[in-house]
Amino acid sequence: MGRGERDRVLNPSWEALDREHVWHPYAAVPPAVPVHPVSRADGVRLTLTDGRRLVDGMSSWWAAIHGYNHPRLNRALTDQLGDMAHVMFGGLTHEPAVRLARTLAEMTGLPRVFLADSGSVAVEVAIKMAFQFTGRSRLLTVRGGYHGDTFGAMAVCDPVNGMHHLFSGALPKHVFADRPPAAFDDDYLTHLDETVAAHADELAAIIVEPVVQGAGGMHFYHPAYLRRLRELADGYGLLLIADEIATGFGRTGELFGCDHAGIRPDIMCLGKALTGGYMSLAATLCTERVAEGIGTLMHGPTFMGNPLASAVAGASLDLLAERPWRREVALIEEGLTRGLAEAAKAPGVKDVRVLGAIGVVETHEPVDVGRVQDVVMEHGVWLRPFGRLIYTMPPYSIGDDLGLITTAMTAAAFSIDPRA
């Protein structure tokens, strides 16, 4: 064994250690699709260890809305670190969390804020709130939804076509209405009326992703259906839970997905972009009526209200309020609509759709993830397709680099063999 080979055995690179020890999300061991090592992230670009620089069309799973390595967000973290990195939230409190809660309450109109670890946990907390408030333990949702990977959240994800069908036997059975259509349809309103009426006496709440169903298929639906669900919840004394984890903070062109329908939920879940992609943090918000009706909420994460996460979240929301995000998202919507028009002509493509800073190319058959990533990376772009979707949710600061993303997506669409 030569010296170089011996050094690699005794001191393996971190990339080699990744292959040996790390289990990546939604992947087997070893992963079927290559994992690409990143050494740095700045602005809207990722730098790989081999020197390639890629425009990130995913905002790190929709969270890094301001881009990476933002000096103001960096400063919020380092300033807070000088005071304290963490302190338990049971029996104690601190300014970053309190100020964040006030900001979220003012943004949403929901005055009570429970800070959680992640989006999935925020949904779990929302479900607990609904169950404690009503004394019932069944929910109504729509097919095609996705609400997270923990057990309570999985139970309201699509039970057939979702990624959690392997666990169906272990999950509680909730009520599912049909998937809402993209266009307005009176018949679907009737379907909602009948479905809720048939189960109203056993339901605690209705839970949906407002206007956009994210990981369940990047499906957009008409706001009228959300308004009808609000009316039905009010009429039957149910709670309405809005899962705004993917749709919150401007992604759809409105500050929250519910704003498209002009309604306010009883409970709202937030996450992803809350910290600008810096740290894991989520929140479950509710009305005063719900909070008072619950009393003691039986949940308490160890890292609830983490000062570092709260500080950077506060800075991210301040930055969002100051930047012209509506104009930025409108420009992204225009650029995606224009840039993806050609992709609709690819023989393997079923549909192309755009809403706000979301662009979707839906194919007839499931895509080869590794192959599509090779194509887009050759065009200097990072995307993470899934199922039959090649999609982008870029940072709001993407600017002229949006053209690189749409060019890469179009190339990927034409690389798909519809006969495969």
UniProtKB/TrEMBL annotation:
One GO biological process term: biotin biosynthetic process
GO MF: adenosylmethionine-8-amino-7-oxononanoate transaminase activity; pyridoxal phosphate binding
GO CC terms, sorted: cytoplasm
Subcellular localization: Cytoplasm
EC number: 2.6.1.62
Cofactors named for this entry: pyridoxal 5'-phosphate
Keyword line: Aminotransferase, Biotin biosynthesis, Cytoplasm, Pyridoxal phosphate, S-adenosyl-L-methionine, Transferase
Main location: cytoplasm
Catalytic activity entry: (8S)-8-amino-7-oxononanoate + S-adenosyl-L-methionine = S-adenosyl-4-methylsulfanyl-2-oxobutanoate + (7R,8S)-7,8-diammoniononanoate
SUPFAM superfamilies associated with the record: PLP-dependent transferases (SSF53383)
Binding site for pyridoxal 5'-phosphate: G119, S120, D243, P301, T302
Modified residues (N6-(pyridoxal phosphate)lysine): K272
Annotated residues for binding of substrate: W61, Y146, K272, G300, R384
Protein purpose: Catalyzes the transfer of the alpha-amino group from S-adenosyl-L-methionine (SAM) to 7-keto-8-aminopelargonic acid (KAPA) to form 7,8-diaminopelargonic acid (DAPA). It is the only aminotransferase known to utilize SAM as an amino donor.
Subunit structure: Homodimer.
Family that this chain belongs to: Belongs to the class-III pyridoxal-phosphate-dependent aminotransferase family. BioA subfamily.
Protein name listed in UniProt: Adenosylmethionine-8-amino-7-oxononanoate aminotransferase
Organism listed in the record: Streptosporangium saharense
Chain's gene name: bioA
